[in-house]
């Protein structure tokens, strides 16, 4: 099935009232952020999508694919499910060695080029993680970051899933902006549950949640790209400060003020990443 | 009477699957009875009676193999469920032995396995899986998409039966299980076991502690012999 669009028909919030957003349409190629305070129902929202909710979850939302109820096969066989959900779990439970596991998964997915797809998955994962993955290791031996990196890579490359849901990728110990950059090369719908400012600002639009209900859909304004750029410069300062502390250095207030002034003085164009 | 025999290792989610399924069946006006077989303790019968208001009871197998016990009591249990005017008898086994499960011909045999239990589990269990009609995989919220797929492939490799992935704790995707239960036909007398499970009921299981075959009865063997029968 050629997926062009997935829609979420609004249900009810935790207090029982109808959701202010009656319908959320996500088109192929969209990068979406789900934002809101802890407990506002962000994870519930992506679970609804992952389950193809049909008024049978607590929110009573419904999912449509290309404007119609999804075919049953999506739920009957996980390898026909077009949605991959990368949860906050950072452990695998499979005790198989990494390469063997990936090879079995590629076989199940009937990937055309089984060996090269495994290579591509490992290469993708290794771009996201600090320590390269040892392919003879058991999946259970991978670190939290390596696990997340492999989950993302597997979903994108072997799973070739057209819709990818990522729950708080920033907590994963992987390079989140590198991940976003790599992911954008693949034409998919990416839905990020995130507290990260830059992931939010680099998304096409954001869905604002409160009390278990979608409150608003906010498209990113052109100016916000520049805001994201400037926040990136601030991020650079934070990274630099962290590195200096880790190296045993002392910090001077004057240095920090100087760096902040540079952020203010940077031309808009330069602030855009 | 229609019989549903539910087996699966301890903590795999048998009770949770049956509880959600029973609630949905009860909502549709189906009349149910529930029997739990366990070794020395269980309180699931009270749970089913309290939550669903259905006739529910338990049997402790004690020193007997619980699946063996189940074969012995199932005839009486079907008659009991009929007296209680139930249309369906849901039987939950103890789930202590990975090899066998007393599925019966004409009944629905359901095995419940947890997705978290290791990729090779389907290869390790015998008749409990291969003689079942339906495999329900639970706890899918705890594993990755890829692991779900590999687990299913290994399951299908071991037994060519329908597989339904669920998050039973949150009642997710149990509707297909309910449909299968509803489609179970009426039992035809006499009820027979679907296979002969290796239940190893013997004098040792029943409490004799002496070491050496010469102290035991039933099917025995010596170090250098084949199996032979020793009667009392």
In short:
The complex is a heterodimer of chains A (273) and B (232). Chain A is α/β, with parallel strands linked by helices. Chain A has ten helices and nine strands.
Please tell me about this protein's structure.
The complex is a heterodimer of chains A (273) and B (232). The mean pLDDT of chain A is 89. With 273 residues, chain A is of the alpha/beta class. Chain A has helices at residues 42-50, 73-76, 98-108, 114-128, 144-158, 176-183, 197-201, 222-246, 253-265, 268-271, and strands at 5-9, 23-27, 31-35, 62-65, 83-86, 163-167, 189-193, 205-210, 213-219. In chain A, the strands form 2 sheets. Chain A has a 6-stranded mixed beta sheet with strand order 5-6-7-3-8-9, with helices on both faces. Chain A has a 3-stranded antiparallel beta sheet with strand order 2-1-4, with no helix packed on it. With 232 residues, chain B is an alpha/beta fold. Chain B folds into 2 domains: 2-182, 3-Layer(aba) Sandwich (Rossmann fold), CATH 3.40.50; 202-232, no CATH class. Helix content of chain B is 31%, strand content 19%. Chain B contains 7 helices and 9 strands, in the order βαβαβαββααβαβαββ. In chain B, α1 crosses α7. Chain B is globular and about 55 Å long.
Give me the secondary-structure topology.
The complex is a heterodimer of chains A (273) and B (232).
Chain A: E1 5-9, E2 23-27, E3 31-35, H1 42-50, E4 62-65, H2 73-76, E5 83-86, H3 98-108, H4 114-128, H5 144-158, E6 163-167, H6 176-183, E7 189-193, H7 197-201, E8 205-210, E9 213-219, H8 222-246, H9 253-265, H10 268-271
Chain B: E1 2-7, H1 14-27, E2 32-38, H2 44-52, E3 56-60, H3 66-83, E4 88-92, E5 108-114, H4 121-124, H5 127-130, E6 134-138, H6 145-158, E7 163-165, H7 175-182, E8 218-220, E9 228-230
Helix pairs in contact in B: 1-7
């Amino acid at each position: 099935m050629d997926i062009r669009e997935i829609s979420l028909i609004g249900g009810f919030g935790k207090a029982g009232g109808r959701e202010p957003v009656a319908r959320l349409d996500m088109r192929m190629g969209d990068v979406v952020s789900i934002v809101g305070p802890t407990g506002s129902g962000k994870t519930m929202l992506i679970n609804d999508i992952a389950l193809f909710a049909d008024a049978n979850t607590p929110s009573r939302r419904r999912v449509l694919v290309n404007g119609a109820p999804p075919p049953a096969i999506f739920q009957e066989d996980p390898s026909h499910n077009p949605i991959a959900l990368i949860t906050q779990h950072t452990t695998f439970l499979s005790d198989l060695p990494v390469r063997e596991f990936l090879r079995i998964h590629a076989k199940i997915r009937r990937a055309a080029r089984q060996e090269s797809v495994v290579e591509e998955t490992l290469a993708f994962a290794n771009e996201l993680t600090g320590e390269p993955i040892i392919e003879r290791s058991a999946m259970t031996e991978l670190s939290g970051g390596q696990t997340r990196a492999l989950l993302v890579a597997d979903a994108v490359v072997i799973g070739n899933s057209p819709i990818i849901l990522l729950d708080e990728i920033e907590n994963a110990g992987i390079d989140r902006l590198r991940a976003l950059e790599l992911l954008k090369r693949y034409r998919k719908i990416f839905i990020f549950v995130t507290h990260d400012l830059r992931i939010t600002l680099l998304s096409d639009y954001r869905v604002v949640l409160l009390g278990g209900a979608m409150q608003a859909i906010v498209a990113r304004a052109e100016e916000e790209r520049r805001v994201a750029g400037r926040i990136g410069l601030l991020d650079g300062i934070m990274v630099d400060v962290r590195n200096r502390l880790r190296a045993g250095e002392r910090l001077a207030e004057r240095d920090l003020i100087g760096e902040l002034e540079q952020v203010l003085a940077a031309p808009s164009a330069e602030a855009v990443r | 009477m229609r019989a549903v025999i539910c087996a699966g290792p301890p903590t795999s989610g048998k009770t949770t699957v049956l509880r959600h399924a029973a609630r949905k069946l009860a909502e549709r006006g189906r009349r149910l009875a529930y029997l739990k077989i366990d070794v020395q303790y269980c309180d699931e019968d009270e749970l089913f009676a309290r939550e669903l208001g259905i006739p529910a009871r338990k049997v402790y197998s004690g020193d007997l193999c619980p699946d063996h016990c189940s074969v012995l009591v199932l005839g009486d249990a079907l008659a009991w469920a009929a007296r209680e005017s139930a249309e369906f008898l849901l039987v939950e086994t103890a789930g202590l032995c990975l090899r066998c499960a007393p599925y019966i011909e004409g009944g629905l045999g359901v095995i419940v396995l947890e997705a978290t239990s290791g990729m090779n589990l389907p290869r390790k269990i015998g008749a409990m899986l291969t003689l079942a009609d339906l495999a329900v995989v639970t706890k899918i919220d705890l594993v990755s998409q890829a692991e779900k797929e590999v687990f299913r492939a290994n399951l299908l490799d071991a037994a060519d039966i329908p597989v339904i992935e669920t998050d039973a704790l949150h009642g997710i995707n149990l509707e297909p299980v309910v449909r299968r239960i509803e489609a179970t036909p009426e039992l035809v007398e006499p009820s027979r076991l679907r296979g002969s499970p290796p239940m190893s009921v013997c004098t040792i299981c029943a409490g004799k502690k002496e070491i050496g075959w010469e102290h035991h009865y039933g099917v025995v063997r010596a170090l250098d012999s084949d199996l032979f029968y020793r009667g009392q």
